[in-house]
Amino acid sequence: PTHVMSANWTPGGKIVYLCLSGPLDRFEGNTMGQGAVFGLLKTGGLPLPVSSVGNPSLSFNQKFVAPLISQKAFSDDVDIPGWWKSTAKGADANDV
Hints:
The protein is globular, with a radius of gyration of 15 Å. Helices cover 19% and strands 9% of the residues.
């Protein structure tokens, strides 16, 4: 089956942001990256699972535990272009 993804790229053709699908784009809409039933729960004000954007436990795990096992969930600051407005990393709550 087909699947829709969203991609943003520079005029030179370099992809700068890629998202699995529109409903999962944490910077668009009102579900903060939650799709399907989790998007409904989020907009209804109900608690979300641990894998949610803004969850402090997941954010802590991504920043401090994952590097211990040579894993990473976000880019290094030096690799972020100057025009990128968000300072949120991995599961941090959205700031834009």
